[in-house]
Amino acid sequence: MRPTHFSGGVTENAISPRFGVAPNVPRLKWTFRASYGHYYRPPPLITASGPLLEFANRNNLGFIALHGERDEEEQFGVSIPWRGWTLDADMFRTNASIFFDHNNIGESNLFFPLTIQRAIDRGWEVSLRSPRIARCAQIHLASSNQVARAGGFINGGLTDFSNLPWGPLDHDQRNTLNIGGDLTLPWRAYASTNAYYGSGFTNVFPGQPYPGNYLPGPTRFDVTPGKDFGERFSASVSAINVASRSVELDNSVTFGGFHWNNPREVNVELRCRFHYSSKTPCECAARPHVSLGRPSAEVLRDVFRLYRTFGFDLMYLLTTPTTDSKCVPPSRLWCSASRRIPETPCADPEVVANPTLHSGIRYGT
């Protein structure tokens, strides 16, 4: 339950109940999930006034108070593992009242928010991910079918006091598909690919030049090869839209005019890891001449547990160098922290018998 109070151009109160459940079938290991909830989206704090409002009035338009959007959403899904494969499917439906959108005045670049009486967004999604195939390859697939429609009176913001016919929203693309894979190659090289298909967005101007109610569907193929050089350096090259296929994505009257997809893009990445150590604390304790490097997240977590319990100086532990740049086993590290004496062996016989035991956890709990 989420209460919301909004005070701006209008004053509104909303109560948003939300519920979700995710039962698991033990033997099959299937996980079902379902959720239901209400959501409140507050309106903008600043509205049109002064010369902007006068400009709208000269174009036979008005600007009325904006109220918050109220959504009702329900979702159902299932996740099915099978021999390393994972299939996930779900459906959702959102009913919106006082739906937020925007529109411009004539052919100008002045865009104003508005609200539409009702909108529905519903869709079905499915994804599939494989296990490691031959220890070097993994494939994935994701598909979606979604419909977004709206209609009714313009009941807030910029309006000509008309009734919109029930129809698709600007960015209503019915079907999308992504399929790709990751490949591990010899000599620490790797490659990943992805193919994308979309059925096309709404065609606002049928016959100019594309016939039908939807624009041509965009397709794209991307590829990224790369290689690691040792533990610290790596390089990769990413090619996006390899075929450099140009498609008009959107011809609705919106921000920045019509939209086309980007031509071929090639990006080169060089990466260097500073202060990098591939050795774990236990490996470092077994090899005393190997530097431990920077404290790991687990080490810092346990150190802060000690700090909350005993209040010792954290900077003493993090800045005190070890003798001859050698490693300090975890047990000696925790004793040094708790007693503020560097490299003092612990008196706890259990710790001495097992030097990999993180005695800091025992002290901090």
* Annotated CATH architecture of the largest domain: Beta Barrel
**Share of residues in helices:** 10-25%
CATH class of the largest domain: Mainly Beta
CATH superfamily heading of the largest domain: TonB-dependent receptor, beta-barrel domain
Radius of gyration: 30 Å
Please mark out the parts with pLDDT under 50 across 5 or more consecutive residues, or reply none. 280-294, 309-365
Span from first to last CA? 35 Å
Largest sheet: 14 strands, antiparallel
Name the structural class: alpha+beta
- Apparent shape: globular
Question: What is the multimeric organization of the chains shown?
Answer: single chain
The number of domains: 2
Number of E strands: 18
Percent of residues in beta strands? Answer: over 45%
Q: How are helices and strands ordered from N to C?
A: EEEEEHEEEEEEEEEEEEEHHHHHH
Per-chain topology:
Blueprint: E1 2-7, E2 11-16, E3 18-21, E4 24-25, E5 30-41, H1 51-58, E6 62-64, E7 69-82, E8 85-104, E9 111-129, E10 137-159, E11 163-168, E12 175-185, E13 189-198, E14 219-229, E15 233-240, E16 248-250, E17 259-260, E18 265-272, H2 281-286, H3 297-310, H4 314-319, H5 330-339, H6 349-353, H7 359-364
Antiparallel strand pairs: 1-2, 3-5, 4-5, 5-7, 6-10, 7-8, 8-9, 9-10, 10-11, 10-12, 12-13, 13-14, 14-15, 15-18, 16-17
